[in-house]
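User: Let's play a game. I give you a shape written as tokens, and you guess the letters that built it. Ready? Here's round one.
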């Protein structure tokens, strides 16, 4: 069984609150509007521009960044795009963040190019993040407050822990994890389903009233709520891995699952709206920050292979019963342990006897503790 390491894009955005004065606010707003206007103009214009050919009253570094942004959008063949939200970008050579003095400085045009310094709120966590390589700075206004958003390239940590943890993602139970000694349940699938159903019901009413803007706002709010839930679940999982001294996390490769999985009409919509990629990505980058490796494996039969004899059986709801050896367990726990030990059938049902060899090859952990999972279903279901 081939194990594929997941490549995590280690770029995070650090948001720092800045406190410009009234006169400076007007200046930033003016420069932000001019920046967006320039980018829109450059997108529509087919010819290439040099900084000295642009007559807009903006710092040269900002003009250069506007050209880069316009070229990037044109390469994506998005010439009909019109940017509306005011924003101001500065490359990493033309701004300075001083964590000791609690200031952020960058150039603005005020009759001529001047560097303005603003008071900022920089926490201890921000200080640690700023030790990494800094990318582009983005100045935005949100709810009447001003922020400097900085792209940070994070250096991967190195963990000396040797434990392996398997993670099985699902709809009813968002995440079930297994280490050598422990099993954990994370998230509430019923609550997630209720949240989506509530927002969907509200959008139907708004659709009948033809309130299109409210429908869009409702979709955005639902997306933010679910994103926050995924952030919390991923943080809990990675903290669990840290406590259990895990050095490697294994997850299923779920790409294409919406096209390949057969499901009932009842669950089809839930499967389509299941944002597993986002949750996997959050787990991945949080784990990588701690130096925990992340891998993915083929998801075929992970919830059907018996932990004791290796035969394949389908579970009824959450209850798994092996027809060969009589082993009884929780379907999702079995899946997470098979993922942990890379115990999968690579090639189909016709090769189940090789699962032990595959598991031994892919995992240094044995199966000595697997029998401990022969728990009563009543206890396991209550844990969900």
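Assistant: Ready! My guess for every position:
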């Amino acid at each position: 069984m081939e194990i594929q390491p997941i490549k995590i894009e280690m770029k995070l955005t650090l948001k720092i609150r800045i406190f410009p004065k009234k006169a400076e606010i007007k200046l930033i707003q003016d420069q932000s509007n001019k920046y967006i206007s320039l980018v829109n103009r450059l997108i529509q214009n087919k010819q290439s521009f040099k900084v000295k050919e642009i007559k807009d009253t903006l710092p040269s570094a900002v003009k250069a960044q506007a050209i880069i942004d316009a070229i990037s959008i044109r390469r994506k063949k998005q010439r009909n795009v019109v940017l509306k939200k005011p924003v101001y970008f500065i490359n990493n050579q033309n701004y300075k963040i001083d964590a000791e003095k609690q200031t952020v400085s960058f150039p603005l045009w005020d009759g001529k190019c001047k560097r303005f310094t603003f008071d900022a709120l920089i926490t201890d966590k921000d200080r640690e993040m700023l030790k990494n390589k800094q990318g582009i700075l983005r100045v935005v206004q949100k709810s009447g407050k001003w922020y400097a958003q900085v792209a940070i390239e994070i250096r991967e940590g190195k963990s000396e822990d040797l434990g392996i943890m398997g993670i099985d993602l699902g709809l009813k139970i968002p995440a079930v994890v297994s280490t050598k000694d422990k099993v954990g349940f994370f998230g509430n699938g019923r609550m997630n389903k209720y949240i989506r159903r509530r927002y969907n019901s509200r959008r139907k009413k708004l659709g009948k009233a033809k309130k299109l803007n409210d429908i869009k706002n409702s979709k955005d709010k639902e997306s933010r709520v679910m994103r926050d839930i995924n952030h919390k679940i991923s943080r809990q999982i990675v903290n669990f891995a840290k406590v259990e001294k895990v050095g490697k996390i294994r997850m299923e490769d779920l790409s294409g699952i919406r096209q390949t999985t057969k499901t009932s009409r009842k669950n089809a919509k839930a499967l389509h709206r299941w944002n597993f990629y986002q949750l996997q990505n959050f787990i991945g980058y949080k784990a990588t920050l701690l130096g925990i490796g992340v891998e993915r494996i083929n998801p075929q039969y992970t919830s059907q292979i018996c932990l004791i004899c290796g035969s394949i059986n389908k579970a009824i709801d959450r209850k798994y019963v092996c027809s060969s050896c009589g082993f009884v367990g929780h379907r999702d726990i079995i899946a997470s342990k098979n993922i942990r030990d890379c115990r999968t059938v690579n090639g189909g049902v016709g090769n189940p006897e090789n699962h032990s060899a595959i598991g031994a090859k892919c995992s240094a952990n044995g199966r000595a503790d697997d029998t401990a999972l022969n728990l009563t279903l009543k206890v396991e279901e209550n844990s969900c």
